[in-house]
Sequence to fold (271 residues):
Amino acid sequence: MVDNFTHSYPQTAPFIPRLILPSILHHYTLSLSMASTHQKIWWSVFLTLLLSNCQHEVDWAPQVPCYFIFGDSLSDSGNNNLLVTKAKANFKPYGIDFPPGPTGRFTIGRTIVDFISELLGFHGFIPSFVTETGKDVLQGVNYASGAAGIRDETGQHLGDRITLTRQLINYQLTVAQIVTLLVGAAAAADELSKCVFTFGIGSNDYIKNYFLPNLYPTSKEFTPEQYATALIAQYSLQLKTLHEFGARKIDLLQLDDYIPPFATASDQQLL
Fold:
């Protein structure tokens, strides 16, 4: 019985049946926002080992039809490469542990959304908005941009960046492409309702805005509590816009890191 079970999966991963991966991903996404930095490091190590064991899986169909990514440098996969900005990562030592080399990812290897896309069953990485072409959009798009924030002015001292507002506009362009490819709004809405949408953004609104009083007036205009409330209110409206354009399965990454402890419970419930 054991032999039959293990032989039904590739020998590279005899003890990691595909059926448990959805549970692992679900537990991971719930745990990440509550984890300490130390715990997040161990989660990354665990995911790396898990995916290295599963990398030769060839008949694993994606668990969702498409995956859309919004965020900042933690998720950017090259959208900043052609922008006039200091927030770029398309040169070494970035990418030294990544087979293609520097791609615009702000890491030496894969990003957290790269790991998630692999766990979801995608055989290739989700294309960045600036590189996707044609039917690529049907598997999803990465809109994330280094130095981006919830607020439009965040990170502007570094140069251009694709703010969350602009990322949502780009997503709306993608939706129009999907409507055309699937020949109808109804078919597109049905497809998008099955997709996963990841958001990882908000830290730059502090470290590249509020905590730079010589460059931005926000720390003079808002108390810390008021600023947190304003950010949450704007973020809520942005998420509602996404919902209006078909998103139903939305994952907010590392929300604890982006909302200070002085944000009230009622503020957080706005999300």
